[in-house]
């Protein structure tokens, strides 16, 4: 009697929602929200100044020597006797100019904050008669004798600054930078390019989504197709699959990806596909084992008896109804695997080392730490990975919980 | 002064928690066994006959469920003081187990030994039979050689048995080998839990014969747990009939043979009837209703299946459904718990 | 006998396949052939002029002899250099497996016993959470903690033991092995406890712990050894981040743009295949030795 009262009092849809929520709606909802948030970051942020800033006048800190010829041509003197040295970091100083040419020991910091003091003391080989500066914010000034730039910016904006050292009337050495002045609170601080690390982390994380999905499409769809056929029909396909799986398992996937990275000239999409192909045999093996165990069950015979075609039995009854749980789990694991591979490759420098990604953030965070700098970048990158991994896990958990048969 | 019984259990109550609710496996069971005597415990599956002994000897799988009662083996009190681990926040199972195991350590494998059903899987699979003996003899040195012990249990090729792994033996051989290993422990009490279940009739007879020889030869006390009244009947001095965790009747084996059906507890009567029906080759009437152990017992646990109840006056019938019957002495050496016989 | 023969055939087939794959990948290496050090390859320094098919065939056919060449990456002959590097990686993997086992076995056994305490269950959940973060993340986190908290840069030659300890810690935390072991030990313990023979063991006073420990050897060894190749991958990542000498740095240098050298990459691959073979053979032997019921 009591239960009847309870159900009549509670509207049916409310009960259904509650049940949905209790059965796994919560993690699914959280996962979908995170995924949507990350995707919207991906769609909205890349056009912003962040990437523009990065590609315009920055180079990565650890360029490999084979790229140095490109760099050299790019850095070559642009006009007459003016030698322009663009801001750079790291070990490629030697490539900037012939050793006899006067050069700046360190470039100007390209980021300044409203209300915070800015100071730059240039150091240049050779005697300097006079220092000049153009294009700076009104509150910044240069000491004409020492060249020390000081001041406190009061307004935000982007300033094309040229710092000129007059050594003799026909020899002027210039340094050109784009100075960004902003007043945002940077929770994780700014990186060496002056970009907001938090924003960078969000962009990097959202950029990792698409390659991960592509990997999983290749790995899980391909693996499922192979595994299902091998499991259902057996024979040579099955034997081939078993040998392939053990071959792949005896060499770490990481090495294969390294080699593929070297062989494909660092093409991101080729790499993504290769990671997917590495994932495929394991998925195929799992699907094959499931299909094999279900193939001999009574319900398959019963389905055949009532005239169901083999195709329908395999894909609908076995793979979809009985294997989807496994597949969702594989998709989640595959997404994590692909993300980690992607990050590792860009960390090692085998994948587009000059664009913003979680791997390059980790690498530059590590370099900052080694140089005694702040840990903001490394921590932000780690939090980014954490966010990705938990999004995938929440999605998989939620979907599986919803599909689970109520007890 | 009365000699102290070898094993005495008083008011033992064992409950297990399960997802379906509390399972009252053993409900207020008391029994005693004197040295050298034999006791048969009979009942259907789930009647609590095995759990009564397993729970006091710490052999229940999962959490130990004893919530109340006393159990003494010789001079050792097995459950005394353990109630302090049962508090308002539940039971500290780990501490409970530890103390209980400490008390049992000198008893198990020495003074008390057990024989289980499914003998092939009850032997340690990666030990030969000889290795079992070596381990026992290291702890309880004896003059008797394992081969002689096996000979006395009716084996003709003791050497082969000693060198064999359990999976290389037949069920009957394994059970007798297990009995041999158990006897090598020179126990004072042997608890045989359905030792003949799953064996063919010839092997059943062999195992029972071996048990009888062991009892006669070493003067050990024996508890024979079985669902088969016929097996127990020919082996023991006294019989305890259990149903749904409670003792419904105590009777000596000799009385069981002579007392007419009408004076027995309805459940004992049903057991005896099924035994006769089977012997005569008639189909056995199936009793569809199985008492769910998770439901709090209200009244006699057997009342829904009782054949006697419809014949009783209406007031007694109501009593059956509402009040648990106490045990009363029906005749010297025989007691039962039934409102219908409680006149 | 047939089992052993089958295993040998399997190992040889897999090794050949992996070698073929690697040679193919290295032969088609996108690094301009001129930049690769081809000296010591039977084709000689002219190798740069040949197409990738020929280079692949050369690499494949002279897989062993290449090992006797020198390379700047290994600072001398390739084979001893690779063996040294593999030893470092192997040590890392061994330490990580031992640590994981030492943590997981008591914990898993405790979890399987009736009435495991809340603290034990929280520990299990904690281990699950820790293991869901990859090695890369743990390495970075530990790096941050060491560099910022203690001012120590891992990989610094002044703290060799500290770096190894931190590397092992990162590997243990980041690999799924620990969580998997806890799960396996727990289920194996509760399976064993519910086996009828364990009742005999308890009732006969045979000593529960020894039998329990014996029943765990096979599942623990299987879990550790089947996970070992993942541990090697993890160790490579750890070595890259902490600047430890090992197969990781060997692979990075031999494939990197600075000093590309397919010979060293091939040697490193062979070392990895050897790892795989050893792990597989050990796993099969342990199972064969411990579990007599297998060949009933």
Q: What attributes characterize this protein structure?
A:
heterotrimer; A: 407 residues; alpha/beta; 5-stranded mixed sheet; 3-stranded antiparallel sheet; 13 helices; 59% helix; disordered N terminus; B: 343 residues; 8-stranded mixed sheet; 4-stranded antiparallel sheet; 14 strands; 23% strand
Description:
Chain A is α/β, with parallel strands linked by helices and 407 residues long. Chain A is 59% helix and 11% strand. Chain A has helices at 2-9, 12-44, 49-57, 68-75, 93-96, 197-233, 236-250, 253-263, 268-295, 298-305, 310-348, 358-370, 376-403; strands at residues 83-84, 111-113, 118-120, 130-134, 140-142, 149-151, 157-168, 171-182. In chain A, strand 7 and strand 8 form a beta hairpin. Chain A starts with a helix and ends with a helix. By secondary structure, chain B is of the alpha/beta class. Chain B contains twelve helices and 14 strands. In chain B, a hairpin with a 2-residue loop joins strand 6 (86-87) and strand 7 (90-91). In chain B, helix 4 (129-139) runs parallel beside helix 7 and helix 7 (171-184) packs parallel to helix 8. Chain C has 296 residues and is mainly α. Chain C is built from eleven helices and two strands, in the order H-H-E-E-H-H-H-H-H-H-H-H-H. Chain C has a two-stranded antiparallel sheet with strand order 1-2. Chain C is flat, with a radius of gyration of 23 Å. The interface between A and C is large, with 46 and 50 residues.
